[in-house]
Structures are given as C-alpha cells and as structure tokens.
Write a structure and sequence with these properties.
The chain contains two helices and eight strands. The structure holds nickel (II) ion. The site of nickel (II) ion has 4 residues, from helix 2.
Length: about 150
C-alpha cells in the first residue's frame, strides 16, 4: 500500500474520460488500496482513479459509513435535492455550494467484478455523484453556484 500523488486541476488528465475496468486483478486491488490510503491521508471522503493519474472507472468512498469501492459505477436512480458545500482533493483550498440529488442508487462492480447496487443518502449520495463525475472528466467546479470564502 502506498500514498500516490494527487493530481490537481491544472493536470489535463482530470478532464479525460476514463476507460471501463475489465481486469479485476491484483493490479486493480493495489490501485484501490493505494487510492484508499491516499484519500485517508488527505482526510478526503472520496477519490477517483484519474485523481491519481489512472484513467480507469474506479472510485473509493468513505463518508464515515465504511469503505465503499465502486468499479464501473452507473447511477441508476436519483431523487430529492440537497445543497451544500463541496470540495475536492484535486482542487485544494476551494469550496463551493453545489446542489445534488439527496438520494442516489448506483450500480457498480466490486473489486472482484461482482455487480451490486447501493443506495446512498445525504453526504454519501453527494460523494457518489462527485466521484462518478470524475470518471467522465468533470470537476465539481462546473456545478458550483456560490464559492465559499
Ligand atoms: Ni473530487
């Protein structure tokens, strides 16, 4: 396990679309473990693979409800609305108000390729939306309605 360098918003890799994961091998497991360590070391609640320079559809999240790994995630249901402050490890020091669905259901594969569904509410829903958007080369900055001083 290792802490990897977090790419910041000047890095063009963050604006690229990620490729589907097809191999659920040791290399993927090491990536996921490293992503979790990297996220934790920066007190983050979520991290997407492109943030450590890997263009693969893989995300780790921990909003205090346990570790969640989403491979090839797809949001299949969403409802409600929440508005709150959001930040990103790739955009250090900048926070902004973003409106997101309050509840989302995501379909994804685990680290061994098994499909599952999970429904998240509040902060977990926000993290799922934020991290899955990273996989399509999108940063939260585009969604900010008001920057927080
Ligand atoms: Ni982010």
């Amino acid at each position: 396990m290792a802490i990897r360098e977090v790419r910041t918003k000047e890095d063009e890799i963050l604006y690229k679309s990620c490729k589907e994961v097809i191999k659920f091998d040791e290399k993927l497991h090491i990536l996921l473990d490293d992503m979790y360590d990297t996220m934790s070391s920066h007190d983050g609640v979520g991290l997407a693979a492109p943030q450590v320079g890997i263009l693969k559809r893989a995300v780790v999240i921990d909003v205090g409800e346990g570790k969640l790994e989403l491979i090839n995630p797809e949001i299949i249901e969403q409802s409600g609305e929440q508005t709150g402050n959001e930040g990103c490890l790739s955009v250090p020091g900048i926070w902004g108000e973003v409106t997101r669905p309050n509840v989302v259901t995501v379909k994804a594969q685990d680290r061994n390729g098994k499909w599952f569904k999970i429904t998240g509410e509040g902060l977990l829903a926000r993290a799922i939306c934020h991290e899955t958007e990273h996989l399509d080369g999108k940063l939260f900055l585009d969604r900010v309605t008001k920057f927080v001083e």
